[in-house]
Amino acid sequence: MKEVLWSPVATRGSGDAMPAREGRSAVKPGRMKRYEPAIVGTLSVAVVLAAWQLVANARLMPVLFLPGPTDVALAFVKLFQAGDIWLDMATSGEELAIGFGMAIVIGLVLGLAMGWYTRVQYALDPIVNFFYSTPRIVLLPLFIIWFGIDIQSKIAVIFLGALFPIIINTMAGVRNTEAALLRVARSFGASDALIFRRVVLPGSVPFILTGFRLGVGHALTGVVVGELVAAKHGVGMLVAIAGQTFQTPKMLAGVIIIAGTGMLLTTIFQRIENRFQSWRPEMRR
Description:
Blueprint: H1 8-14, H2 31-57, H3 69-82, H4 84-116, H5 118-133, H6 140-147, H7 151-175, H8 179-187, H9 192-229, H10 235-244, H11 248-276
Helix pairs in contact: 3-11, 4-5, 4-7, 4-9, 4-10, 5-7, 6-7, 7-9, 8-9, 9-10, 9-11, 10-11
């Protein structure tokens, strides 16, 4: 008896079944659909800035309380003309890079271990919950006693701020691996190490990148908080001094630098996350 092999060509010719490619509900977004988020976001920001400028021009309140976008832009230009901002940005950038980089490495290791090994989770879960629930700012005086007012104390605050969102999201990613995939892999005789590398780790990537995005906000908060309390240089210190001396436009210019850094890093992680999820078809609505 001859074996009959299924062929897409034969299926297409029979007229009894639709081709597998046509049965999918994936659609390729059009050009306008692709750029719609950027267009709508840009228009909304433009409307907010225009409304802010109109209210500021009416001078319902003095510049001290409500500077307009043009006042902030002028203060921004003066900051870069003075030149001191470069040292402040370099100091804050170094603190952020070291603290957040350490949080990524250690958070990934601990999160993967806690997600894969149940006893590791039992051992570390109380510690993670304790420090995650504790505002890191209350530990800053202790860090200043230990490390002084140099960048080491800021790095410690940034590290602790970003560490726990990464641990928790990484652990959740490992724990949320579909049980059916694990059963299938084990039924084919795959070892635990192979299952971890080929099934668990790739499936956890979206959770891990979400942890990175959450960690960015906590890390930037650590930069500002650490430099507000005690620092020699930094954008957070610039914001603190400008606020204490009633230079509201200059203070808002510093805030924009910090917020812009956070938006840039968040966008980078969002693009990477979308890259890993590009295999998923976009469903018709």
